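**Fold in tokens:**
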Amino acid sequence: MKIIKLSIVVSVLFAAISASAQNADEILQKHEKAIGGTENWDKIKTVKMTGSMSMQGMDLGLTQTMILGKAMRTDITVMGITGFTIVTTTQGWMYMPFQGQTKVDTMKPEMVMAAQKQLDIKSNQLLDYKTNGTRAEYVGTDTVNGNTCFKIKFTDKEGNESTSYFDKNTYYLVRTENKLKSDSEEMEVAVLYDKYKKMDEGVVMPMSVTAQGAEITFTSIELNKPVDEKVFIPTIDK
């Protein structure tokens, strides 16, 4: 059971442009409006998401706490045993006792880089792709879960490509396809987003995320609540 790939689950997206770039821009502008607008997203400073993950027939407890642009901690509970991953802007750590770990280990650089992208929540919502040097290209329509979607290919400044699908009716992001590296191997990861909910802060977020056979269902999402930065110190409770 490779739970360490959780750090990849909720992480992925980014950009491209061509002769049809105007169409991509129009779609992304409507997407931005649909999920609350940049002004509301700019006000989000902390995020705490609580829920569960269904993986390989098991239900795991899950809590993710973030100070945007600074640090993120994901706590995972399996059969009453809790482990964690912690990522900051400079490094990352992992402690998975249910996988036999007896001490905190540092995360591999590629895992840290993948997780660090989640610290930029606006980028994850595709709200500031241009400022990151990313290009967007409209490449037609496709179907996701029976719904017609606009399909946009993104290419970042390093040349990495990903594809995102936006529901034609709601303009919500419903699927992304990305190529990620894990243990020096390249893997293609598809992420599905569902059950969007409007928060009191005016932004709209998915309450369900599915990737690599694992489905995360959030029961609560708290925004702009105080976060004690001590939770990002990689220590084991005795």
Observations:
- The CA atoms of residues 50 and 63 lie 4 Å apart.
- Helices lie at 6-9, 21-34, 37-42, 109-116, 121-124.
